Amino acid sequence: MIIYPAIDLRKGRCVRLYQGDPEKETIYHEDPVIVAKRWETMGAEWLHVVDLDGAFEGEPIQKELVVKIANSVGIPIQVGGGIRNSDDVEFYLSSGVARVIIGTMALRKPDWFVSVCEKFPKRIGLAIDAREGMVAIKGWKESTNVSAMDIVEKWDNLPIGAIIYTDISRDGTQRGINFEGTRLLVEKSRNPVVASGGVGSIEDVIKLRHLEEKGLDGVIIGRALYSGSVDFKKALEIAATTEKMERRN
After folding, report:
1. What is the structure's pLDDT at 30?
2. Of the residues 8, 51, 53, 88, which is catalytic?
3. pTM of the complete model beyond 0.70
4. CATH at residue 23
5. Which of 61, 127, 171, 185 has the greatest number of CB atoms lying within 10 Å of its CB?
């Protein structure tokens, strides 16, 4: 299981929001590149980067900073936030980003989403951001009548790199992961799933590792790492132990 440290970008800084609310922001560092290098030094295998300005504005705003982060580390990064067209996808994938995450346009322009997944197999991530089981789009500001399960079923045959499932009500709260919702989605999907939203303690990591055999690829952790509620090296140890156990079996 991969532990993805989250680097959320807003106005050039590394921040975290409470339940996606821009009015409830905590600034963690003025230089996200330093943060990215620190996570790599500590053993991160991947980084999860979000252009929050882009998510709110509907177009990438922090492109230069994202590329700077990607080229400053030797590990892959995935990025989401305001990516709405092929030019943005191709720009990122040709500039050092390993995986591009798309959410809003998967619902708004499904034919286009299919085309980019087929053009860039396993390099497109699908963001499923849900509130009470229903998908939200446009930086979580707009709710839909589409369920997370419907989305998983709809795109199950596409060569998606990862489905990033976030419970909006828990994101940034450290109240604990929505384990049951994550389990149901993992069991439904044939594509790898990355859990996100609400991780508050190492116990969340321990619970989630039991979903690996069902298809859980990893977990994104943000506020809990920055606040110290989750020890990153301990989380890595738990994930690595699980991998070794599977190899022996």
Report:
1. 95
2. 8
3. yes
4. 3.20.20.70
5. 171
Question: From start to end of 168-215, where are the E strands?
Answer: 193-196
Of the residues 129, 167, 171, 217, only one is catalytic, namely: 129
pLDDT digits (tens, 9 = 90+) for 64-102: 999 999 999 999 999 999 999 999 999 999 999 999 999
pLDDT of residue 52: 94
Has 88 been annotated as catalytic?
no
Confidence of residue 139 (pLDDT cuts 50, 70, 90): low
Distances from the Cα of 41 to the Cα of 191, 232, 234, angstroms = 29, 11, 15
Tell me the percentage of the chain whose pLDDT exceeds 70: 92
Two tokens, residue 67: 């590329």
Domain boundaries, position 229: 2-248
Question: In whole angstroms, what is the distance from residue 154 CA to residue 132 CA?
Answer: 19
Q: Which of 48, 95, 23, 14 shows the shortest CA–CA distance to 218?
A: 48
Q: Count the domains in the chain.
A: 1
User: What's phi and psi for 51, nearest 5 deg?
Assistant: -85, 90
d(CA 106, CA 87): 16
The pLDDT of residue 195 is above 60: yes
- What DSSP designation does 25 have? E
**Catalytic (active site) residue 231:** no
